[in-house]
Protein: Major facilitator transporter
Organism: Candidatus Protofrankia californiensis
Amino acid sequence: MLAIVCAGVVLPSLDLFIVNVALPQISGDFHGASLSNLSWVLNAYAIIFAALLVPVGRLADRASRKSGFLLGLALFTAASACCAVSNSVWTLVAFRGIQAVGAAAVVPTSLSLVLAAYPPARRSAAVRTWTAMGGLAAAFGPVAGGLLVSASWRWVFLVNIPVGIAALVAGARILPDPPGERGPLPDAAGTALLTIGIGALTFGLVKSDDWGWGSWRVIGLLVATAALVVAFLARSARHSSPVLELALLRSRSFSVTLGSATLFSAAFGAMLLSVVLWAQDGWGWSALRTGLAVAVGPAMVPLLSVAAGRLIPRLGPGAVIALGCTVFSAGVLWWAISVGSEPDYLRDLLGGMLLTGIGVGLTLPTVFSTAATSLPPARFATGSAVVSMARQIGIAVGVAVFVAVLGTPDGPQSRLLGFQRGWYFIAAISLAGGLLALALPRPGRRAATVVDDTADAAAVDGTASVSVG
């Protein structure tokens, strides 16, 4: 079961990053396509994926998580086939949007199926495996993209089809089907407010480099986002069936890890973009060579995920997350101090790749397992969607701010200085995520936390009292 849901979540995670390296080849096939038009191949996916995660997760909690996972995977696989045979930029953009709808169904339902299938004592380890696979897929995106586009950019999408079909066939027979919570459908107006708000935020971020951070369009979108989020929260507080129960955020473990996940995801997304851009633009490496150079970092993730699982009972999740964020920051600072204009992989890049890989392996699985296991069973899909949405928004914010910090270099020295500023920024927000995680209770205070979080779960489920043995 775990292998099936991991296969399902690998595809959307991989697609977030793998298409980046294929854009030059797509441009060559579609003669006359401008960069601004091509950017929508990435932007349409990012905006729709982020906007629909929570509403679709809430619907899965109300209906069937197994059906939601299989329908999302089928839609993603079919849209991948359509992307591969697209004959124009805008056809490709349209099918990428459909891909994102399927991805928004697969990601939260896959984690909720893991949580529902495993007993409480084993959930943390299962979630770490799920997270490690998603992190590996995201980080190996440039490697896979470099290999596939050497044949054709269409293979970037065709590779999804056999994996998707195999997961569908096996999933229909093997996956559990935990009952959904019966009751009215989630608030439709609240769903619209959240979807438009997240779409406006993501759209403003991805277009900030083209329009400029001070442009009226970017500022207007950010102001509109704030107003829509306030309206969404106000409606959620008084609606009988809100998309997101605010009681979820009153769980200390969930809310703190949510904030830490957002900050670290911003650092992770900016780091991955920075090293790919530097290797290709600064050192002139090919996409394939760059992907292979980056691969050593992701290779550390599964190993450190196991180590994190052994450290958590002794140190507590907050200390493990803080340690991972610190090691990650040290790897990025390595680049800021060591990287020069002349390529030297062993001296300049390798040490930082190893350290960032260790940091990701310690941090991301711990963040997701801590947040997910603090959820009441009836909200597994919704809570998982909130964490995934926070991660996606964090990545979008980190990438947009890094691009703004980098600026428009006018020479090799200016480019190096811009990347150094960007790496200092990445290190700072990673450390901020680690500091926030220290607010999580330590192992000695676990009993009190269980009482608090159980009470919050009861508030979500409408339970009047909680008995603590």
